[in-house]
Predict the structure of Amino acid/amide ABC transporter ATP-binding protein 2 (HAAT family).
Amino acid sequence: TKAGATLAVSGLTVSYGKAVRALREVSLEVPEGTVTAVLGANGAGKTTLLRALSGTLSFHRGAIEAGTITLGGRTLSGLRPAGVVAAGVVQVPEGRRVFGRLTVEENLRAGALGARGRPGGDAARDRVMELFPVLGERARQRAGLLSGGEQQMLAMGRALMARPSVLLLDEPTLGLAPLMAERIGETVAEINRQGTAVLLIEQNAALALRLATTAHVLEVGEVTLSGPADELAASDEVRRRYLGVG
Ligand code: ATP
């Protein structure tokens, strides 16, 4: 079955044209049921990693030069974005990018299309409404009228409608007030408790390390540090560079 599948990135090298090598031999895993975090400064290659995972690299003139991406042993690299979603790996894009002119309800229905007739649509909807009651209250409002935090919730809800086994989160707390960022963090933890694995890309290293089981540090396209999140949170290097202490 799909649940039980580890998302594995192995030796991934990605370039944009001839000039820019954005990732170099990146290897990491998102085991079933875990939260895995990737930390890194601006330009480290975090977004590129997510583009490679979601099959959208070619839209940005990027290409995988070497390496593999697999889910439960099945190769994902080379699939189109819809194929990746159908396989169970669904991205919540940075900046949220909900369909502003569509209603909340219509956005959620658009997300469900990704599941391609797999059963369980009603359960997915119930789950989203339980996680984000505000989306039920605002079902008929245009998504563009929601607050930033509510749009993040809608983007996450839309992704969950596709019933992912792995959810890819790109900076989910970016630009949100601290209280809203905390709420989003709590929701990520709850989504994970319900059995969905999460790959979390976050500038907010403190939040990411609190939520994650395992974390990786990406620097100029390479993984330079990997380990249990609590060990990384205690390391001098991470504290100085990403947590702003010491
Ligand atoms: P940020 O947090 O600022 O989004 P990031 O860690 O996500 O940074 P990427 O956006 O993946 O980093 O960028 C990695 C490198 O690839 C950078 O040097 C960037 O300039 C380059 N890059 C990203 N997209 C393209 C593109 N479409 N064409 C050429 N170079 C690109």
Remarks:
- Residues 178-193 form the longest helix (16 residues).
- Residues 16, 20, 22, 40, 42-48, 60-61 surround adenosine-5'-triphosphate (CB under 6 Å).
- DSSP finds ten helices and ten strands in the chain.
